[in-house]
Amino acid sequence: MTQLDPTRPQRTTRSQPLARALPSVLAALLICLAAASLRGQSQPTEDDVKAAYLFNFSHFVRYPAPDPSAAKTFDICLIGRNDIVPTLQSVVQNETVNGQPVRILQLDRAADARPCAIAYMGSSEASRIEKDLAALEGSDALTVSDVPRFTDRGGMIQFVLQNNRVRFTVNRSSAERARLTLSSELLKVALAVTPAPPTEVQ
To answer: Can you tell me the distance from the alpha carbon of 90 to that of 100, in angstroms, rounded to the nearest whole number?
Structure first.
């Protein structure tokens, strides 16, 4: 059974008053458990945990200043076939990020995800990962996948299973090339960060 690894965002933009008052670790766990409850399950599944992470990553990323003509929604785009869709839709229902309603989009082509805030590539994209990443090059999208060696091939965040728990690795250089700033709190809980963040002076 998978378990959610707790994280602490520097700020929260969740729309529920209770969630704003709770520590972020509890808020993240509640998201995951709520998704499981909606599916009639007593414990979160791997998809539940990944969906909770995908939404909560939004609290750990600082994007470039938005174009005034840009979309007024926070779009999480799923490229290819993804079993995570129903769970993610439950997780983000009625949620906002920086005042923008969260919207889930299912796309066939990675190029269509360029305006998205987060672009998730499931296992169906394994044979096309390099092409997908090339199509997203130069965009502001945070790229996420569970495809093996995703971060080695230029992706930003990769889900991995360790001891039956969903963890993630980070390619910090890829995020920086896209002008995305990842919170130090996110980097602290990552299983691995490439290149490693600077050591803090005590």
So the answer is: 17
Residue 144 within a domain: yes
Q: What is the pLDDT of residues 130-184, one digit of tens each?
A: 999 999 999 999 999 999 999 999 999 999 988 888 899 999 999 999 999 999 8
- The answer to whether the CB of 130 falls within 8 A of the CB of 153 is yes
Is it the case that residue 37 has pLDDT exceeding 60?
no
The CATH code of the domain that includes 122 is 3.40.50
Q: 54, 35 in Cβ contact below 8 A?
A: no
Q: Is 117 left (phi over 0), alpha (psi -120 to 50) or beta?
A: alpha
In a domain, 85, yes or no: yes
37: containing domain = 17-194
- The predicted model scores a pTM of 0.78
**Who's near 118: CB < 8 A, 6+ residues apart?**
54, 57, 58, 75, 76, 77, 141, 142, 144
Give me the number of domains the chain comprises. Answer: 1
Question: β-pairing, 165-171 with 157-162?
Answer: antiparallel
Dist. CA 28–CA 51, nearest whole Å: 10
